[in-house]
Design goal:
Helices cover about 45% and strands about 20% of the residues. Strands 1, 2, 3, 4, 5, 6, 7, 8 and 9 form a nine-stranded mixed beta sheet that branches. The chain has about 300 residues and is α/β, with parallel strands linked by helices. It folds into two domains: about 160 residues, D-Maltodextrin-Binding Protein, domain 2 (3-Layer(aba) Sandwich); about 100 residues, Periplasmic binding protein-like II (D-Maltodextrin-Binding Protein, domain 2).
């Protein structure tokens, strides 16, 4: 999330410049970043923070950078006080961060084919960690199970760090996590990368194949972050915010900061982002249903 602060600073600096001579903005913009890194607190923070924006005055002065979890997953996992596409106005999809599948060094598999074969030979014996129930790493693991036709056991942790620690200690066998979390351990040779759930290979890990390259094109697992405002925010205000955000994403410092972490900047239109949220919501709702993931409604 530190890298996103660069983007947010760019947004704050660019908004007054781009809107010069207009009524908006004429005071400070409150930007909510409603999640710490992973675990149950992540779920609580992202839902509560997003709900704050949904209930804020629709004037463009309260906006949020929200995750896939808040906008597309939580509504299918639990009862939330907001309807994403009814109570929020998408501004732009900011960035995508691929999930990478890695295994502990003790696992006798060095590629996807070997890992699937190992799992099929030992149904219910291999474990996959996650940063918490209902997190993107959890659902990525569930999608892996469905796609590969394997039986592996979910072990939820209170965040990404303890999940990685137990993977390093050989207590669990594999995990999907945001690429930046795993890169240091991969480069140190302490974890074995299997595949990255992105459409293309990522520059920060060029030797790691995509899930499509290993025969699983449906195993597309990317976390993502987008900017939203309250519903009924005037179209001209949304347009100004979109323009400022997209301009900020073109800044070389922002690009360099995020690309090193494996993130891909997007910067699409509000309508495109709305359609993307809708498709992602349907995708993960189906995974939750098909995998029999427990929900709290």
């Amino acid at each position: 999330m530190k890298a996103f602060r660069t983007l947010l600073i760019g947004l704050v600096l660019l908004c007054p410049t781009l809107a010069a001579g207009q009524d908006f903005p004429n005071k400070a913009i409150r930007l909510i970043v409603p999640f710490p890194p992973g675990g149950p607190n992540d779920i609580i923070a992202r839902v509560v923070g997003t709900d704050v924006v949904a209930k804020a005055p629709p004037d463009g002065y309260t906006i949020a950078i929200a995750s896939a979890g808040a906008l597309a997953i939580s509504p299918s996992m639990e009862k939330v006080a907001y309807d994403t596409l009814r109570d929020l106005q998408p501004i732009t999809l900011v960035a995508k961060v691929p999930e990478m599948l890695v295994v502990a060094t003790s696992v006798p598999a060095n590629n996807m084919q070997e890992l699937v074969a190992l799992a099929k030979s030992q149904p219910g014996k291999l474990n996959f960690a996650s940063s918490g129930p209902g997190s993107m790493p959890h659902l990525a693991g569930e999608l892996f199970k469905l796609t590969a036709g394997i039986n592996i056991v979910h072990v939820p942790y209170r965040g990404a760090a303890p999940a990685v620690n137990d993977l390093l200690a050989q207590q669990v066998q594999m995990v999907f996590l945001d690429l930046p979390v795993l890169l240091p351990q991969i480069k140190a040779g302490k974890l074995k990368p299997i595949a990255v759930g992105a459409p293309q290979r990522v520059p920060s890990a060029p030797d790691v194949p995509t899930t499509a390259e290993v025969g699983m094109p449906g195993l597309l697992t990317e976390n993502w972050y987008g900017m939203v405002a309250p519903a009924k925010t005037p179209p001209e205000v949304i347009a100004a915010l979109n323009k400022a955000a997209v301009e900020a994403m073109k800044d070389k410092a922002v690009i360099d900061k995020l690309s090193v972490q494996g993130a891909t900047l997007v910067g699409d239109s509000p309508d495109e982002f709305r359609a993307f949220i809708d498709s992602e919501t349907k995708k993960w709702a189906k995974v939750i249903k098909d995998a029999g993931v427990p929900v709290q409604k």
